[in-house]
């Protein structure tokens, strides 16, 4: 379960130079994996303050965000008129099968148990693909920040964990895993190195996972 986080403070972090760089790098990687078309629908699971929901909507998607935290949703509603928000649990999504083109869960899955049930629900309500943003245990970010600040109480996973979660879905889906935020300091050196390292390396602090239905 996600511990209490002040919505305004959480959102303010994305306006710091380091937070803005991390948010931009993560979103760019997610969009590179999804490759959606303008007008597609997306369910953002565990949307929190709506930071990524808004970015998806600004990219031309029709976005619905869900979160169990009423305070987070109130803040999200105050920041955006082009995203529909509602209170709901990732473990029991109140939508019909294949209601959306895509579903996303960006770091929210790190606070949800069991993650496999949330993934199954996201698979159920999406037509094409699910994208996950996870905290990578095999990264410099883990050693620098785990169990501190906003990361306190989060579960850190690795590519092996992800593949084990997805074993029950293996006959019907294909998976693509990338990573970003290799040097989490956010200074000029970190940003320069980030541009040079291939996202296929599994050592970035942010794991992006695409789960796509086989055609």
From TrEMBL:
| InterPro entries on file | Methyltransf_11, SAM-dependent_MTases_sf
Q: Which Pfam families match?
A: Methyltransf_11
All residue ranges annotated as the Methyltransferase type domain in the record: 43-127
An example molecular function term from Gene Ontology annotations:
S-adenosylmethionine-dependent methyltransferase activity
Family matches, as Gene3D superfamilies? Vaccinia Virus protein VP39
What domain of life does the native source organism fall in?
Answer: Bacteria
Q: What is this protein called?
A: Methyltransferase type 11 domain-containing protein
């Amino acid at each position: 379960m996600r511990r209490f986080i002040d919505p305004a403070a959480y959102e303010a972090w994305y306006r710091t130079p380091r937070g803005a760089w991390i948010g931009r790098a993560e979103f760019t990687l997610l969009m590179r994996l999804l490759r959606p078309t303008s007008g597609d629908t997306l369910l953002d699971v565990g949307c929190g303050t709506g930071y990524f929901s808004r970015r998806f909507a600004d990219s031309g998607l029709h976005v619905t965000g869900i979160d169990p935290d009423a305070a987070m949703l109130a803040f999200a509603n105050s920041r955006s008129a082009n995203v529909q928000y509602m209170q709901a649990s990732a473990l029991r999504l109140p939508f019909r099968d294949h209601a959306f083109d895509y579903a996303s869960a960006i770091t929210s899955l790190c606070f949800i148990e069991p993650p496999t049930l949330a993934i199954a629900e996201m698979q159920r309500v999406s037509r094409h693909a699910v994208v996950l943003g996870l905290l990578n245990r095999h990264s410099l970010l883990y050693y620098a920040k785990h169990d501190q600040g906003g990361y306190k109480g989060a579960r850190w996973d690795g590519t092996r964990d992800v593949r084990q979660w997805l074993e029950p879905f293996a006959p019907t889906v294909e998976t693509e895993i990338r990573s970003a935020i290799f040097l989490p300091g956010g200074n000029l050196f970190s940003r320069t190195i980030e541009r040079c390292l291939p996202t296929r390396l599994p050592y970035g602090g942010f794991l992006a996972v695409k789960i796509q239905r086989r055609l």
